[in-house]
């Protein structure tokens, strides 16, 4: 393989003390320890107007730069808070700027943070929207319930959640390495249509 894989984290909360941001930072630290390079797109800290199909990306604040950072990624770990049983508008607004150019051939891991006890529906919704841009979403995913009890002073303190993040990141890196190896050593597979 040519070099370490690049894993980009995307945090879909604008809240100053966001647990989503803290969880994504934790996931990126795990990826770095496993040998990846990382970059964090913190959507709480960008100039990104509401997506408008009639306006060019170049005229849309930081959009062009953010999209370029996602295009460079071999893998993306996306985090969103649960807002009303789905993902946040902050995540969705950035996602509407994205398409096949950003996500085709990109491995994705999902993470959702909830104030209460529901994480299944936002994770399902993220999985569907990621399929829509042809990302390869790994099966392991992370849901953090009752988030305020899982972090202290900006740090994740829950071992079970830390283990889940570790497993999701391992899955993302394994799938990424398989993709990079396959790209380096393409194998021709004969199908009946070739006969
Ligand atoms: C508009 C809005 C809707 C929310 N809806 C839900 C919800 O349906 N279920 C839930 O468990 N928490 C809900 N929450 C709580 C957030 O998931 C929780 O505050 C979370 O920590 C926010 O993520 P952050 O810390 O990354 O900003 C909602 C919060 C907001 C602001």
Description:
It contains 6 helices and 7 strands, in the order βαβαβααβαβββα. The chain has one domain: 3-Layer(aba) Sandwich (Rossmann fold), CATH 3.40.50. The mean pLDDT is 96. The protein has helices at residues 19-33, 63-72, 89-97, 100-103, 120-131, 159-184, and strands at 6-11, 37-42, 75-81, 107-113, 136-144, 151-152, 155-156. A hairpin with a 2-residue loop joins β6 and β7. α1 (19-33) packs across α6. It has 195 residues and is of the alpha/beta class. Strands 2-1-3-4-5 form a 5-stranded parallel sheet, sandwiched between helices. Strands 6-7 form a two-stranded antiparallel sheet. Bound molecules: flavin mononucleotide (FMN). Flavin mononucleotide binds next to α1.
CATH architecture: 3-Layer(aba) Sandwich
Number of strands: 7
Rg over alpha carbons:
17 Å
Present as ligands are: flavin mononucleotide
CATH topology, what is it called? Rossmann fold
Distance between the termini: 33 Å
Shape: globular
Mean pLDDT: 96
Q: Estimate percent helicity.
A: 25-40%
């Amino acid at each position: 393989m040519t070099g370490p894989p690049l894993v980009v984290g995307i945090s879909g909360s604008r809240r100053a003390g966001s647990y989503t941001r803290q969880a994504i930072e934790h996931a990126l630290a795990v990826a770095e320890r496993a040998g990846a390079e990382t970059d964090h797109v913190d959507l709480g800290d960008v100039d990104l107007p509401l997506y408008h199909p009639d306006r060019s990306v170049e005229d849309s604040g930081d959009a062009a730069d953010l999209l370029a950072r996602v295009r460079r990624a071999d893998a993306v770990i996306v985090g969103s808070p649960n807002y009303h049983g789905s993902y946040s508008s902050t995540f969705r607004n950035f996602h509407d700027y994205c398409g096949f150019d950003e996500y085709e051939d990109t491995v994705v891991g999902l993470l959702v943070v909830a104030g209460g006890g529901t994480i299944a529906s936002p994770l399902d919704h993220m999985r569907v929207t990621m399929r829509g841009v042809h990302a390869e979403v790994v099966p392991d995913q992370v849901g953090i319930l009752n988030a305020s009890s899982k972090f202290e002073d900006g740090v994740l303190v829950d071992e079970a959640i830390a283990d889940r993040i570790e497993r999701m990141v391992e899955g993302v890196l394994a799938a990424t390495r398989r993709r990079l190896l396959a790209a380096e050593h393409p194998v021709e597979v004969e199908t009946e249509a070739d006969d």
